[in-house]
C-alpha cells in the first residue's frame, strides 16, 4: 500500500499530465484546422478570381492570368487586366493553376506547371458539373498538394483548378507538435517536482509532529509539541494538540490525586478500626468494654461504607453509568425526610433546624427583589426536579449535614424550597463561620476541605460537595454558594424545573 504522501503525489502527476495533454491536444488540433483553413481560403480566393474573370469575358480565349490581377470593373471591361495597376501580390507565385472544360480537358495552365497537368477524375468532373467547389489532397510529384476546383459560372462550361503545396502547412504543424510536446513534458516535470517538494514539506512537518507526539507518554504529559511559529493550519493543529495534551494532563492529574486521596481516606479509618480491634483483643475485658469497642468500630464501618458508596457514585457518574436524569420527583416530601433524619444530630448540638417547604411551583410568585425564593400559591403544581430520588436525597443530606456540622452549638440551620428564575431551588443556610471567598472555587474539588474544617474537629472527607456538584451538574443544574443573611454560608441547588 502506497503512503498517503505518495498517493497524493501520484494523483497530482496524473491530473497535471491529463490536463496538459488535453489542453495541448485541443490547441494542436485547432492550430492544424486553422492552418489548413488558411491555405484553403487562399487557394479558393485565387480560383474564384480566375473563374470570375473567365465568366466576365466569355469572348476572350481561355488563358491563365499569370500576373497578379484585380477583379475590377475596368479590368473586366478591357479583358486584359491592365486597366488599373493592381497592387503587388505573391499570391500566384507558388500556385499551380489550370483551366479545364467539363470533360477534364486542360485548356490552359500556368507556366509553372511546365509540360505536366493536374489530374481530374470523373467523380470530380461530376461534382463540378453540379456547381460545387471541390477541395482535395493530391499526390503531385513528391509534394503533398492541396487543390481546389471551382466551376466557372455563366455560359462557359469550364472549371478553374488551383493547387498549392501542403509542405509549409505540414512543416508548421510538425513544428507545433514538437513545441507542444516539449512544453508539455517540461511542464509535467516542473509541476511534478515542485508539487512533490511542496507535499514533501507539508508531510515532513506532519511526520515531525507524529514523531514528537509519539514520544509523549503518560509520564511525560507535561511535554508540549514545539510550535512552528506562524498561526497557519500547521500552527493551529499544534495549538489544538497542545490544548488537548493540557486537558489530558489535567484529567490525568485529577485522576492520580483522586486515587491517592481515596486510598488515603480509606486507609485511615481502616487502620483506626484495626488498632481498636487489636487493643480490645489484647486481653480479656468486661462486656461493657466490648460493647464500647464494637460501637466505635461500627462508627468507623459506617463511615467507610458511606465513603465507599460516595466513591462508587462518583465513579459511576464519571463513567456515565449513573444516569442523573429521571422522572420528575416532588422535592418537598423528600426534604422533610432528610430533615427528619438530620434532626437527632441537630438536637445533639442544640441547633435549630428549620424547614420551609413551599408546596407549589407558581410562575407568578417565584422570587423577591433579593432573589430569595418565595412561597408559591398552594394550589399550583408541586416543586419538582428530574433526578433519581436517591441522588436528590444524597445532595440534600450532604448539604443539611454540612450545615448542621458547621453551625455553632445553639445555632440555626434553615432549609427552604422555592423557585428561582424558572429553576427549582433548594436553599440550605446556617449561621456558622461561612465560606471564605477564596475557598469557594475549590469547594467542589474531590477531597478538598476548607482551612476551618481542617483546623477544627469537624469530621469529614471532602467528598460530599464534589458528589453534590457532580450529581446536580449531570442533571443540568448548578450549586451557587454565597453568604446567608443568617451569618454563615448559603448553598442554593438550582435544578431545571419539569415543564
Ligand atoms: P466535608 O464536609 O467532608 O469536609 P464537603 O465536600 O462536604 O466535605 O465540604 C467541603 C468543605 O466545604 C468543607 O471542608 C468546609 O470547609 C466547606 N463547607 C461545606 N459546607 C459548609 C458550611 N455549611 N459552612 C462552612 N463551610 C462549609
Helical fraction equals: 40-55%
Helical run tally: 10
- Give the C-level CATH assignment of the largest domain: Alpha Beta
The CATH topology name of the largest domain reads: Beta-Lactamase
How are strands sequenced across the largest beta sheet? 2-1-5-4-3
Beta-strand content? 15-25%
Largest sheet, in brief, is: 5 strands, antiparallel
Low-confidence stretches: 69-83, 363-369
Structural class: alpha+beta
Terminus-to-terminus distance: 57 Å
- Tell me the total number of β-strands: 14
What compounds sit in this structure? adenosine-5'-diphosphate
**Average residue pLDDT:** 86
- The shape is rod-shaped
- Rg, rounded, reads 53 Å
Please provide a written account of the structure.
With 499 residues, this protein is of the alpha+beta class. The chain has ten helices and 14 strands. The protein has three domains: 1-58 and 95-215, Beta-Lactamase (2-Layer Sandwich), CATH 3.30.450; 233-317, Signal transduction histidine kinase, dimerisation/phosphotransfer (DHp) domain (Helix Hairpins, Orthogonal Bundle), CATH 1.10.287; 323-496, 2-Layer Sandwich (Heat Shock Protein 90). It has a five-stranded antiparallel sheet, sandwiched between helices. Strands 7-11-12-14-13 form a five-stranded mixed sheet. A two-stranded antiparallel sheet has the order 6-10. Residues 69-83 and 363-369 have low confidence and may be disordered. The longest helix is centred in the first third of the chain and has 53 residues, at 4-56. The chain is rod-shaped, with a radius of gyration of 53 Å. Bound molecules: adenosine-5'-diphosphate.
Amino acid at each position: 500500500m502506497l503512503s498517503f504522501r505518495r498517493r497524493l503525489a501520484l494523483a497530482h502527476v496524473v491530473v497535471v499530465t491529463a490536463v496538459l495533454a488535453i489542453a495541448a491536444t485541443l490547441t494542436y488540433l485547432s492550430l492544424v484546422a486553422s492552418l489548413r483553413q488558411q491555405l484553403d481560403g487562399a487557394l479558393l480566393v485565387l480560383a474564384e478570381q480566375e473563374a470570375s474573370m473567365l465568366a466576365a469575358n466569355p469572348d476572350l480565349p481561355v488563358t491563365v492570368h499569370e500576373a497578379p490581377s484585380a477583379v475590377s470593373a475596368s479590368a473586366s471591361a478591357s479583358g486584359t487586366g491592365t486597366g488599373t495597376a493592381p497592387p503587388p501580390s505573391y499570391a500566384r507565385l507558388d500556385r499551380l493553376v489550370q483551366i479545364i472544360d467539363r470533360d477534364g480537358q486542360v485548356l490552359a495552365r500556368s507556366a509553372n506547371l511546365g509540360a505536366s497537368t493536374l489530374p481530374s477524375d470523373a467523380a470530380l468532373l461530376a461534382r463540378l458539373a453540379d456547381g460545387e467547389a471541390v477541395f482535395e489532397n493530391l499526390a503531385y510529384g513528391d509534394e503533398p498538394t492541396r487543390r481546389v476546383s471551382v466551376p466557372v459560372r455563366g455560359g462557359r462550361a469550364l472549371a478553374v483548378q488551383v493547387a498549392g503545396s501542403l509542405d509549409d502547412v505540414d512543416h508548421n504543424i510538425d513544428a507545433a507538435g514538437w513545441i507542444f510536446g516539449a512544453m508539455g513534458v517540461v511542464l509535467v516535470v516542473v509541476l511534478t517536482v515542485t508539487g512533490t517538494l511542496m507535499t514533501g514539506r507539508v508531510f515532513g512537518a506532519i511526520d515531525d509532529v507524529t514523531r514528537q507526539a509519539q514520544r509523549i507518554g503518560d509520564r511525560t504529559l507535561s511535554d508540549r509539541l514545539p510550535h512552528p511559529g506562524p498561526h497557519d493550519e500547521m500552527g493551529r493543529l499544534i495549538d489544538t494538540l497542545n490544548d488537548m495534551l493540557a486537558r489530558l494532563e489535567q484529567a490525568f492529574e485529577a485522576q492520580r490525586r483522586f486515587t491517592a486521596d481515596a486510598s488515603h481516606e480509606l486507609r485511615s479509618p481502616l487502620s483506626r478500626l484495626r488498632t481498636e480491634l487489636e487493643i480490645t483483643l489484647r486481653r480479656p475485658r468486661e462486656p461493657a468494654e466490648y460493647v464500647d469497642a464494637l460501637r466505635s468500630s461500627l462508627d468507623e464501618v459506617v463511615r467507610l461504607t458511606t465513603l465507599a458508596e460516595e466513591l462508587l457514585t462518583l465513579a459511576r457518574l464519571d463513567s456515565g453509568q449513573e444516569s442523573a436524569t429521571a422522572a420528575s420527583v416532588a422535592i418537598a416530601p423528600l426534604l422533610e425526610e432528610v430533615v427528619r433524619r438530620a434532626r437527632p444530630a441537630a438536637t445533639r448540638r442544640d441547633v435549630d433546624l428549620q424547614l420551609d417547604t413551599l408546596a407549589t411551583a407558581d410562575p407568578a410568585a417565584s422570587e423577591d427583589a433579593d432573589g430569595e425564593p418565595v412561597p408559591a400559591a398552594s394550589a399550583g403544581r408541586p416543586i419538582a426536579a428530574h433526578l433519581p430520588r436517591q441522588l436528590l436525597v444524597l445532595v440534600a443530606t450532604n448539604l443539611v449535614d454540612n450545615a448542621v456540622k458547621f453551625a455553632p452549638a445553639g445555632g440555626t440551620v434553615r432549609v427552604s424550597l422555592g423557585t428561582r428564575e424558572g429553576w427549582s431551588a433548594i436553599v440550605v443556610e446556617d449561621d456558622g463561620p461561612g465560606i471564605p471567598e477564596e475557598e469557594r472555587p475549590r469547594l467542589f474539588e474531590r477531597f478538598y476541605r476548607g482551612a476551618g474544617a481542617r483546623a477544627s474537629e469537624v469530621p469529614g472527607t471532602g467528598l460530599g460537595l464534589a458528589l453534590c456538584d457532580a450529581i446536580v451538574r449531570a442533571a443540568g443544574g448548578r450549586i451557587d454558594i454565597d453568604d446567608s443573611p443568617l451569618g454563615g454560608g448559603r448553598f442554593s441547588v438550582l435544578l431545571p424545573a419539569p415543564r
